[in-house]
Amino acid sequence: MLVVSVAAALSACVPTAGSAEAASYAYDVNPPRITFSPSGADGYASSVEVTVLWENTDSYKFYSVKGRTGIESGEIRYAEPFVITAEGSNEIKAYYLDTEGVKRYVTATVDYIDSTPPTASAIAESIRCEIDLTAETPMLLTLRAADALSGVKRVYVKNLGREFYLKDGADSLYAVDCAGLSGYVYVTVEDNAGNTTDYGYQLNGFDRTTINEYAAKFAALDESMYASQAWDGILEAYKNLSTALGDPATSSSVVSAYKRAADEAADTAYRITTVYSASNADVPTGIDASAAYGYTDRPAGEALTLTAGECAAANYADIKNTASAASGYLNPITYAFSLTLTSGAGEVNVYREIEIGANMPEGADVAKVYYYNSDGVLELLRSEIRNGRLYFYTDKFGDFYLVSDLEYTNNVSDGKGLTIGGKFYPAETLWTAGGIIAGAAVLGGIVTVVVMTVVNKKRGK
Length: 461
Description:
Layout: E1 2-7, H1 20-23, E2 33-37, E3 48-53, E4 62-66, E5 76-77, E6 82-84, E7 90-97, E8 103-110, E9 119-120, H2 123-126, E10 128-131, E11 139-146, E12 152-159, E13 162-168, E14 173-177, E15 184-191, E16 196-202, H3 208-220, H4 228-245, H5 252-266, E17 271-276, E18 288-290, E19 303-309, H6 316-327, E20 332-343, E21 346-347, E22 354-359, E23 364-372, E24 378-380, E25 383-386, E26 389-394, E27 398-406, E28 417-420, E29 423-426, H7 427-431, H8 436-458
Parallel strand pairs: 17-19
Antiparallel strand pairs: 1-8, 2-3, 3-6, 4-5, 4-7, 7-8, 9-11, 10-11, 11-14, 12-13, 12-15, 13-14, 15-16, 18-22, 19-20, 20-21, 20-27, 22-26, 23-24, 23-27, 25-26, 28-29
Helix pairs in contact: 4-5
């Protein structure tokens, strides 16, 4: 800012017209002009050159300067433009003798000088690589820089023969995408007066493979699929992983643990907890359930409750007998139980078959599961046995009947039937009066196979 004013004459000690001192100088009709370069119109400058022009070449050419401390210099003979580098308000006085021989002066003030380079707060920590896997730009080189007077004009990085300008952010935070940077980088902070400060930073050591992998994983997630609590858990897991990846000294085992946590948090499977509303022999043990997003009308990650209890049907004992008979097992053991699936919002609507797991009864080799529908009909459900556990699939909930056969493999030799070609034939089918022919035919088939085998061996086939 430039302020110019014309002041009145000084005190009586100032030389007057006719004095010896005054007579040695030409009088000026007009006061001198004070100019600054640069003028300040375009902002701050690190220094200012002051030029004073008097009307007559042999005028009374003196000036003084008063800085922000308030101390004014004595009169200085003006010979050529002079430079001011002191920050703050600087008042310049240019003296002259008017046509009456009275000493007068004009003043001009300059207050746009900034000769101090910009600084970064807490230099050791201010420049760093910020990792945020949930951000559009997951790897940012950041610098918190400030300049008390003219302000920061720009921050830029020199790396790989190019300059990367850091964008101004909130609270004096500047950042640039690290995707195109590697190795050692040189950072320059420049203020609006042209002063600069340089910093350096080493970008090696970051696990860019994991950073890129998990940034892509997060970008592929759809927040609308998840319950709010589940989404908060995802953000927290990715935040922890980001922090771990932001420190190159973090051990690989710690990073691996945070990676697993992020994967588990983003899993779209429902969190299904099993509770038992009854404890009796008719409810199988070890019941659990699993289903992925889209199998129900609830968002992913929502906590669902699978409740196992007693059958609702009053005549469930009779239905157990029907299920036992329908299974075709010789030694059936039947469980009758109910299953319901609920959430905090109430009963859950199921669109696709959910996998239900249960412990196999001790000693059982086979099992079947039936659903008792609203028409009073037992529906055989798809099921399988894996690693000693029974799994069945249903998109309906209500009453279920699990039928197993104990020691099923021993039925071959317990005198109650015969297994031929992997198929079990009950004894009553083979040896009753009505089944003698069928039994003989089956046995005849076995004998025929044995005879043919012997004959073929003798023929060398």
